[in-house]
Amino acid sequence: MGNIVELMKQEVGKAAALKVQSNSVIGLGTGSTTAFAIEYIGKRLAAGEINNIVGVPTSFQAEVLAKKYGIPLTTLDAVDHIDLAIDGADEVDPQKNLIKGGGAAHTREKVVDSLAKIFIVVVDGNKLVDKLGSSFLLPVEVIPMAVTPVMRQLAQLGGKPELRMGVKKAGPVVTDQGNLVIDVKFDSIDQPAELEKTINNIPGVLENGLFVGVTDIVLVGEIKDGQPVVREF
Ligand code: 5RP
């Protein structure tokens, strides 16, 4: 099963990389699926299939991968637009709204993905849900001194908040911005646009992982007759 998911991610990352055109500014997302897209963009550049590309990374991970695969980087101070952003997601609903933040990078991802003229989401078929919050907890980035009151207020909104802890690192996960992440279980997210705004209004919250009305294209990797295929919706 693990290998099949990996294969789906690889194919969907490749399909997204094929949408990159010469002379463009590309938002480089975070996560294991986008990592394949970054790799293939780099390979297309090296092969001379495309040229004059600059990337805006959404995380330290994206920055490291872009350097590894030879994609020149820039910042939002140096460009006035992003042509295309490619990023993963943890859940995608039928309206193409998302939960993101599995890699604790959703704050910078939302800045970059929202600025893009075209935002492509790359996922394997397991990420498609009827309703957001069905399987994944909602990540909320919080400044460290506000963690306790923010957790209280998230509980008052009906959520079950828990501080995200590190793996192979003692203590909590610290984001690329030096903040902490609270993962919140909501029984049902019926109105994602409202919840996104309500949570971001809590003092001390930097950003939450609901991406509403941002996605243009979703590329989904699936297995049909034992073969990986990519479909678009
Ligand atoms: C990081 C993200 C990722 O895009 C999301 O977690 C999906 O990652 P993967 O492709 O590894 O499943 O939002 O903050």
Outline the structure in words.
The structure is a single chain. This protein has 233 residues and is an alpha/beta fold. The protein has two domains: 2-126 and 213-232, Rossmann fold, CATH 3.40.50; 138-206, ACT domain (Alpha-Beta Plaits, 2-Layer Sandwich), CATH 3.30.70. The chain is 30% helix and 27% strand. It has six helices and 13 strands. The chain has a six-stranded mixed sheet. Helix 2 runs parallel beside helix 3. The longest helix has 16 residues, at 2-17. The two termini are 24 Å apart. The mean pLDDT is 97. Bound molecules: ribulose-5-phosphate (5RP).
Average pLDDT: 97
Instruction: Determine the fraction of residues in helical runs and give it as a percent range.
Output: 25-40%
H-E order: HEHEHEEEHEEHEEHEEEE
What radius of gyration results from the CA coordinates? Answer: 17 Å
General form = globular
In CATH, the topology of the largest domain is named Rossmann fold
CATH class placement of the largest domain: Alpha Beta
Note the total helix count: 6
Major sheet description = 6 strands, mixed
Strand order of the largest sheet: 2-1-3-6-12-13
For the structure shown, list the relevant keywords.
alpha/beta; four-stranded antiparallel beta sheet; 27% strand; 13 strands; Rossmann fold; binds ribulose-5-phosphate; Alpha-Beta Plaits; 233 residues; six-stranded mixed beta sheet; 30% helix; 2 domains
